[in-house]
């Protein structure tokens, strides 16, 4: 494509955390926080099977038709930042300032706004996704963050209903995949291999002795890693969800917090939990008093009769919903994913 898609950036203004709970009865629950310096314009969307996709990366773009339906949380209604498909496959995008994507490729292009959606549309397990990604079927193309003069620098986490996990990063223009069930946590900088090394130090000390308490990504990684395996392995799925919520809240950044010397720290704006065994997707905004959920068993994902639907969360995700919010979704035209001009 002949253009430099990404250079190393100044420290990011965003900080998120993703963590996976592995229970004794096959329970798998993935939680994430969305930390961003301004309103990220998030709404919830339901996408059925059979949707034709274009990679939005110019004339030589990847094309596919969605095999699986999904529920997703959008970013600015131009990208998929988080979501779960009908098979319990979860994809999450988090900021990684070290990300550097390749400049050119003969392979079809995929805009970074569609990266997570590509995973949700096409794969039911992490192993299946990793097998496909190892062949590098596309050239990942970044673009500017809406309203800003900087490129999106992201890495991708995946987890499935078996508890398998993978982290995908692009470092110095090359794809790196970390694939193992034990990779339960992902935050931001530094790169995942260095995060693992830092966490090994804290694991040696022991979480009951001391844990790092700042909002920095490495400290959040250490706390999430300890607590997600320290919480009781309860047989009640509702109590387990509550415990996992307590972990992701523990690594959240208080609303309105800013740290002048640490521009990579931003307020947590919302949190999601994906119960991959029961197929329930929970959403919690920092500005509303209630947590609500959507049971994917109540959604028609079929290509023949399924509809694109959306739940309007309002400015700063301030609209209030409670309980099962499926009845509040409205049929809508799908948003246009952000990408390069055709």
Tell me what you see in this structure.
With 342 residues, this protein is of the alpha+beta class. Strand 15 and strand 16 form a beta hairpin. It is built from 5 helices and 20 strands. The longest helix is centred in the middle third of the chain and has 14 residues.
What value does the average pLDDT take? 89
Q: Which word captures the global form?
A: globular
Biggest sheet, spatial arrangement of strands: 13-12-11-8-7-6-3-18-20
- Percent of sequence in beta strands: 25-35%
Point out poorly predicted stretches. Answer: 1-13
Helix content: 10-25%
Separation of the first and last Cα atoms: 12 Å
| Biggest pleated-sheet summary | 9 strands, antiparallel
Number of helices in the DSSP assignment: 5
Give the ordered list of helices and strands: EEEEEEEEEHHEEEEEHHHEEEEEE
Radius of gyration over all CA atoms, rounded: 19 Å
Computed structural class:
alpha+beta
**Count of extended strands:** 20
Summarize the helices and strands and which ones pair or pack:
Layout: E1 17-22, E2 28-35, E3 44-47, E4 52-54, E5 63-65, E6 70-75, E7 79-85, E8 90-95, E9 109-111, H1 115-122, H2 126-133, E10 139-141, E11 154-159, E12 165-171, E13 174-179, E14 185-186, H3 192-205, H4 217-230, H5 237-250, E15 268-275, E16 280-285, E17 291-295, E18 309-311, E19 323-324, E20 330-331
Helix pairs in contact: 3-4, 4-5
């Amino acid at each position: 494509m002949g253009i430099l898609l990404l250079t190393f950036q100044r420290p990011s203004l965003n900080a998120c955390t993703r963590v996976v709970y592995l229970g004794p009865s096959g329970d798998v629950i993935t939680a994430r926080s969305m930390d961003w310096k301004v309103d990220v314009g998030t709404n919830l969307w339901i996408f059925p099977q059979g949707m034709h996709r274009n990679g939005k990366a110019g004339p030589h773009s990847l094309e596919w038709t969605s095999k699986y339906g999904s529920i997703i949380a959008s970013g600015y209604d131009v990208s998929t930042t988080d979501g779960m498909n009908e098979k319990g496959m979860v994809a999450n995008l988090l900021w990684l300032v070290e990300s550097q994507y390749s400049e050119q490729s003969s392979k079809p292009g995929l805009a970074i706004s569609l990266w997570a959606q590509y995973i949700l549309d096409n794969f039911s397990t992490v192993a299946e996704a990793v097998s496909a990604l190892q062949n590098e079927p596309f050239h990942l193309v970044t673009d500017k963050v809406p309203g800003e003069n900087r490129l999106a620098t992201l890495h991708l986490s995946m987890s499935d209903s078996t508890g398998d996990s993978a982290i995908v990063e692009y470092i110095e223009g090359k794809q790196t995949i970390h694939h193992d069930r034990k990779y339960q946590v992902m935050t931001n900088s530094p790169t995942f291999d260095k995060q693992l090394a830092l966490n090994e130090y804290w694991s040696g000390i022991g979480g009951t002795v001391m844990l790092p308490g700042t909002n920095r990504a490495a400290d959040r990684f250490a706390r999430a890693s300890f607590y997600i395996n320290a919480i009781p392995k309860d047989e009640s799925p509702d109590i387990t969800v509550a415990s996992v919520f307590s972990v992701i809240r523990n690594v959240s950044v208080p609303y309105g917090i800013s740290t002048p010397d640490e521009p990579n720290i931003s307020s947590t704006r919302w949190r999601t939990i994906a119960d991959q065994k029961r197929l329930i997707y929970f959403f919690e905004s920092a500005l509303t008093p209630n947590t609500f959920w959507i049971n994917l068993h109540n959604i028609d994902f079929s290509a023949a009769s399924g509809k694109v639907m959306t739940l309007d969360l309002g400015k700063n995700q301030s609209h209030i919903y409670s309980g099962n919010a499926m009845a509040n979704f409205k049929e809508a035209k799908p948003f246009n994913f952000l990408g390069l001009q055709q």
